[in-house]
């Protein structure tokens, strides 16, 4: 026999629908971000009271959590929109979801490689700087040189 409910106790005691502040707290975002996601149509048709206050359902909060988790993984808003559409499409092919994730991994790898190149360049510049009381500074020289290769730090001025 299945247990009646496996939801956390905090979630069981919530009187749905909830205000924007409570929805945001439950989803782990700010109320400002909840409004932003709604403005981007990532969260369509949030019910409003006659006086214009937003009322969020459990499904809305689940969607906000999905968006937050997607943002935490670095997906763009366009990718999140595509993922949300696939999430709601019960006839989807998981290969479509996997393709989005694989493309995102590729983009992350490119960004990581670029950041590692920046780190190597900065390390070389820091290594070439005496760091003493003299005004001569290869770091500033490199930054001010319009012909400097951004991927290669100029070497020492000993």
Explained architecture:
With 158 residues, the protein is mainly alpha-helical. It has 7 helices and 2 strands. The protein has a two-stranded antiparallel ribbon. α2 packs across α3 (31-39) and α2 packs across α4.
Residue windows where pLDDT falls under 50 for at least 5 positions: 153-158
Instruction: Characterize the overall form.
Output: elongated
Structural class: mainly alpha
- Count, helices: 7
Q: What is the oligomeric state here? A: single chain
Q: Strand count, sense and closure of the main sheet?
A: 2 strands, antiparallel
Distance linking N and C termini: 79 Å
Helical content (DSSP H or I, runs of 4+): 55-70%
Topology as H/E string? HHHEEHHHH
As a whole number of angstroms, the C-alpha radius of gyration is: 25 Å
Report the strand count.
2
Mean pLDDT: 90
**Strand ordering within the main sheet:** 1-2
Task: Give the amount of beta strand, in percent.
Answer: under 5%
Helix/strand layout:
Elements: H1 9-12, H2 20-27, H3 31-39, E1 47-48, E2 54-55, H4 58-72, H5 77-88, H6 94-128, H7 138-144
Antiparallel strand pairs: 1-2
Quickly describe the structure.
The protein has 7 helices and 2 strands, in the order αααββαααα. By secondary structure, the protein is mainly α. Strands 1-2 form a two-stranded antiparallel ribbon.
